[in-house]
C-alpha cells in the first residue's frame, strides 16, 4: 500500500520508513528537512494538502512533533507543530479519503500527577483520563491532539485510527533528554519518590507502527515493555549513586537556576521526576497482538551495554 510518513527523516521516522519499505510498501517520507520525498512543513496547511493531493496515500503515519525543543524554540512554535500540525494532517486525511491514520502519541498525554493509575496500583491503562500538564508543552500538546482525534473518531468513523501512547524509547543510537538524566555522575531523585520508568526498544516501536499500518485493529494502545525500573534500580544497574533531594529544595534550586540562566529546567520539573506515567501494556499484547521483544529492564540493559555504560 501507499503510506505517507510525516516526520519521515526524524529518529523514529527513519526506522519506520525503512521497515515499511522493506515490507514492500510504497512509502513517502514527508519532512521539513532536505532529502525528504516530499518537503512538507506541517504548520503550513496548503503544503500538507498539496502533498496528500500529489501522493494520494492510503495510510498516513503522523510522527512529526517537537520532542526535544532547541534553544531557539518557544511555546508558540511547539504548539504550531504539535497541535496545529496534527490538525492539518487530520484535515488532509479527511479531505483526501485516507483510510487509516496512525499517530505517535505519548504516555505524557496522561500527565504527571500524584494519583496516576490510582485504580490499578499505579499502572496507567488506556481508559484512564488524559490530563496532560499545562506547564509541559509536550505533555499538554499530546493531550490536546488526542482530544482532537477523539472528536474526529465520533464525527468521521470512516477514518480508522491507531493511536500509540509510547513510553521512553531506547535503542543503540538513542541520545535524548531522558538518557541525559542517566549520564550524570549521580542520578537525581526526589526524596520519597521511586520515579519509575517504562522503556521500549526502538525496533519494537518500528514493528508496532508497521503492524498498525497493515493490521485491522484500531484504537489507542500504550507502547512499553513489560515492567518498570525505579530510579534506584537504574542507578544500581549503572553502578552510580543517587542524589536524593526533598521536593521543596529541588523546586527552589531549579527556580534560582532558571532565573540565572544556569538551567533550561524550571521548578515545574519536579513533578516530571516525581510522578512519571507508568504504562501498562496488557492491551498492546492482548488486543493489538504485539508482545515487545524486550522488557523495560532488558531494553535499559541493552541500551546501557551497547553505549558502554556498564
From TrEMBL:
Print the keywords alphabetically: Isomerase
Q: Where are the transmembrane segments?
A: none
The record's section on InterPro entries has:
Epimerase_deHydtase, Lipid_A_modif_metabolic_enz, NAD(P)-bd_dom_sf
Enzyme Commission number(s) from the entry: 5.1.3.2
Top EC group: isomerase
Quote any Pfam family the record assigns. Answer: Epimerase
Limits of the NAD-dependent epimerase/dehydratase domain: 3-184
Gene3D superfamilies for this protein: NAD(P)-binding Rossmann-like Domain (3.40.50.720)
Statement: the UniProt record of this protein carries the keyword Isomerase:
yes
- Its recorded name reads UDP-glucose 4-epimerase
Q: Which organism is it from?
A: Nocardioides massiliensis
